[in-house]
Amino acid sequence: MVSDTQKLIISPSPHLKAKDTVGSAMRDVFIALLPVVAVAIYFYHVYAAFLIGVCLVTAVLTELLFRKLSGKKPTLHDWSALLTGLFVALLFTATTPWWKAAIATFIAVGIAKELMGGLGWNRFNPALFGRVAMILLAPIFAFVDDWFAPLATYMGSVDVATQATPLAMLNAGMEMPPLGQLFAAFPGGALSEVSPLALLIGAAYLFYRKHITWHIPAAMIVTVAVLTLIAGENPLYHLFTGGMMIGAFFMATDWVTSPFTDRGKLLFGACIGILVVIFRVGLSPTEGVAFSILIMNAFVPLIDKAMKRPSFSEPRKQTQAS
Amino acid sequence: MEVKTFQGGAHIPHFKSYTEDKPITRLSPPKEVIVPLLQHMGAPCEPLVKEGDKVEIGQKIGDSEETFSAPVHASISGTVKEVGKRTVPTGGEDDCIVIEADDGPQEFEMKQIRDPQNIDLEEYRKCVREGGLTGMGGAALPTHVQVKYNEQVDTLLLNGAECEPFLTCDHRIMVEKAEELVRGAELMMNSIGAKRTLFGIEVNKPDAIEAVNELIKDRDDMEVVSLAVKYPQGFKSHLIKAATGRDVPRGARSAELGCIVRNVGTTVASYEACVYGKPLIERVVTVSGPKVTKPGNYIVRIGSPISHILKECGVEELENHKVVIGGPMTGLAQPHLEVPVVKSSTGVIVLPPDMTREWMEYTDCVRCDKCVEHCPMMLYPNQISIYAEAGLHEKAEEWDLMDCIECGICSYVCPAARPIVHWVQRAKPEIQKLQRSRK
């Protein structure tokens, strides 16, 4: 017999829910980055692991601090702080002083995300914002290098990656390593630049889990390929070096900072591609992808508005029925 | 086989295996029925009986002078116990007639009173009005109102999509009452002067498609349109678009598009109203859920309290469950079990705690665009939800909030669990106020 005292749940429709949550999606992106993390640690051993650890811890502490200050509940369970921390670490070279990576993480999580209103309200990709802030603020932090100099020596010699990065080699017109090697695994540059293959494996997982769509990466890659081809260069080198792969599949596709329609995503990706080529061919190639994405992040509201599709109920022009 | 559909929408696990093979059976009449005086969109009925009156099954007990209304009838024989406020399935309290059963006849006697070949539009309208017919698929428009237009209607579109998860009542009606359905369609098609009838059926009901096809294979004025299994395929606008290819601009009535859409259950019921004079006193209701011991498709008296239905179906444990009248995407969660089933109640669905999330757990929009990808109305539920939550109604209106059909896909796919439909429902009257003040 059904008793009257049993409590029934009342809430608005719909009463069914898809399984994905923000937390599970962010965790999936984290998982998708593990292959490249593994390759980075293979090449740079403890340096890579240490840098990643520093960024993860800083990200968590920063979020706790800012949430505490703003009187909001901590949202660590949504994985977004950890993910930002990992992204920041992957954007630095293995030999980057740990405090630089920590400050970048603090800026990414604290300023670019939390001060903007928290996850969902940030206009710029937090990790890229943190990374680029460190480039722009480098002169200010120069003196800090000296403070930490003794500590740096304590950490051991930093001879792991003194060779030029493939992107720098490409820009300087040096002889490039074989494409296959560059694609599979090749040391040099930021942690995320060691293996386009590992990034693609991660991206495939994100496609499979339907967290990203093909529009942005395809538009970005095709644009870069076509334009570099026109400029008379081998597009594959451009695609497999620098931040191109992590940018196309992980950074530009960030939910919060990309446009919401397919058409908008295509335009967004193509514009990033154009900017990347401008940076690489005409300006300094360092962090060209990061700057390109951040610049286009600023245009997202405009793209969203301009690309608004008509409602299903919008009266269409009368088509003559045959 | 050509399968038609529309843009957007989503595949939602449909949970129909609990009941899709369960033949329609009668549930014993309850000791007491609660018949709301308003079970349709439009004006409420005035009670025609008072406390203490004896009523017979099928007797008209409420009616209205308004055109946009439909009468209500006693679904059991007995004594009027009360005319007063009771909880209704659409939320809140409303006037109801409560009837206590006596030992009078409790089944409606089916005898033919009209020849289906000889019913014109006027008579047809009168029959469905007097029978209290309303849309039985959910929208609950008085049926007779929909056949009074003078516009040229060329197509009668029968809605057998049944896209809501769990629900199988229309499916079983098409399989078991295909003959009444086709006859009802013919009757309706002839009386409104339509040239053809299309049966829109989702392809996950092959037996229904076959049953209808078997009966209409020699006719060239009737055709089954196979529809993709996709939510919300059964919503009127999307059914019209998929089956006929016609656009459905805002504000347009389907008759203006040359199309009248009828739910299959309504079609069978209107046939019975015309030929047997049987008013809408019972309907097929899907009772389902993972923990319902005897899930099925039951003929239930209009006004039966859900406590009676759940008891008959072997539901015991309900702590922290949700009891939904209608489908789980658009139906309403009920506060207690003394709520009656009405003419538009397609199902009584019992959802255990692990199938449904408490709604307060939502977070800010993370712009994942899943709602934009799936919105069948081509809207931007993400933007709409942000503006509607903040009470920025003008901005919400700019993003076409008023076009929302409240199908619930956006909230279903939302990883931030945002109650978007709830905010839309809250904002609509406010925006209507704004629109009126502009005139």
Q: Kindly report the oligomeric state of this protein.
A: heterodimer
Please tell me the CATH architecture of the largest domain in chain B by its name: 3-Layer(aba) Sandwich
Mean pLDDT of chain B: 91
Q: Determine Rg of chain A (CA atoms, Å).
A: 22 Å
Into how many domains do the coordinates of chain A divide? 1
Shape of chain B: globular
- Ranges of chain A where pLDDT stays below 50 over 5 or more residues in a row are 156-162
Taken together, the total number of domains of chain B comes to 3
Helix-and-strand structural type of chain A: mainly alpha
Binned strand content of chain B: 15-25%
What profile does the largest beta sheet of chain B have?
Answer: 6 strands, mixed
| Biggest interface, CB < 8 A | A-B, 45 and 73 residues
Regarding CATH, which class of the largest domain in chain B?
Answer: Alpha Beta
First-last Cα distance of chain A = 62 Å
Largest sheet of chain A: none
Task: State the helical fraction of chain A.
Answer: 55-70%
Secondary structure: number of strands of chain B: 18
Helix content of chain B: 25-40%
Total helix count of chain B? 12
How would you describe the overall organization of this protein?
The complex is a heterodimer of chains A (322) and B (439). With 322 residues, chain A is mainly alpha-helical. In chain A, 62% of the residues lie in helices and 0% in strands. In chain A, helix 9 runs antiparallel to helix 11 and helix 9 packs parallel to helix 12. Chain B has 439 residues and is α/β, with parallel strands linked by helices. Chain B has three domains: 184 residues, NADH-ubiquinone oxidoreductase 51kDa subunit (Rossmann fold); 155 residues, no CATH class; 80 residues, no CATH class. In chain B, 27% of the residues lie in helices and 20% in strands. In chain B, a hairpin with a 6-residue loop joins strand 16 and strand 17. In chain B, helix 2 runs parallel beside helix 4, helix 3 packs across helix 4 and helix 3 packs across helix 6. The longest helix of chain B has 19 residues. The mean pLDDT of chain B is 91. The chains are: A mainly alpha (322), B alpha/beta (439). The interface between A and B is large, with 45 and 73 residues.
